[in-house]
Amino acid sequence: MQLIPLFPLDLVLLPGTPLPLHIFEPRYKEMIRSCLGEREHFGVIRASESGIVRVGCSAEIVDVVRTYPDGRMDILTMGRKRFSVHEVDQDRAFLRGDVEWLEDEPESPAGTTLVTEVLALHLQLLHMLGRDDDTTEDEGPWLSYRLANGLPIDLDFKQGMLEMRLESERLNSLLVFYRKAIPKLQAHKIGQKKSSTNGWVN
User: Fold this and answer.
1) Among candidates 10, 106, 24, 17, which has minimal Cα distance to 58?
2) Residue 131 DSSP code
3) CA 3, CA 57: separation in Å to the nearest integer?
4) Maximum CA extent, the chain
5) H or E segment at 157?
6) Are 57 and 15 within 8 A, CB to CB?
């Protein structure tokens, strides 16, 4: 167990993905100053009306982009390690959590066929969205997280991926997403084309 600062936000941070933040609330300015002084990470955890979720991701401050006279900061962070909150501490102005660090369960490397299909569908979807992406240049151990970070997916989906303990499970969940999203987007584009041509599509 380890006690770390917690930053509840309406988002899901994934390991190996960047997160720029504008720090303006006094309690979080204090938290970031403390993290910088102690060279420690803080935990980003999803917040909702019902409270915070249990599983989050630590954030390393990789750059202080800008500081303002009133103490506000623009910082760039990077997601690092997943954790599970066992107890919340409120002794300071900001929340802290007694956390357990989470590792993936041992498994054989994801099959070549699975990775190849996921990458192909990912690029197909981005092409349809008119976007470029360079996350496929280095597959690495966190391929699923880097792919998910650039997708138009909801927070529940991202949170579910964060809580999965197998890379193969995360890749398969992305496969299901692509297989549903691509036909829907294709149908939407066809519908737009028909609308713009009064129903005639060559």
Assistant:
1) 17
2) -
3) 14
4) 67
5) helix 155-163
6) yes
Name the one residue in this structure whose structure tokens are 């995360």.
170
Name the strand (E) or helix (H) holding 4: strand 2-9
pLDDT, one tens digit for every residue, the chain (202 residues): 899 999 999 999 999 999 999 999 999 999 999 999 999 999 999 998 888 999 999 999 999 999 999 999 999 999 999 999 999 999 999 999 999 999 999 887 667 889 999 999 999 999 998 887 655 555 567 899 999 998 889 999 999 999 999 999 999 999 999 999 999 988 866 666 655 555 554 4
pTM: 0.87
Residue with tokens 């750059």, as numbered in its chain: 63
Q: Are 170 and 153 in contact (CB under 8 A)?
A: no
Which helix (H) or strand (E) element contains residue 84? Answer: strand 73-89
Enter the tokens of residue 82.
Answer: 């997943």
H or E stretch including 74? strand 73-89
Which whole-number Å values give the CA distances from 192 to 125, 129, 181, 183, 198, in the listed order?
17, 14, 16, 14, 10
Tell me if 107 sits within 8 A of 124, measured CB to CB. no
Q: One-letter amino acid identity for 109? A: P
Extract the tokens encoding 41. Answer: 């990470």
Work out the angle between the directed axes of helices 167-196 and 155-163 (0-180°, nearest 10).
160
42-48 and 2-9: which strand pairing?
parallel
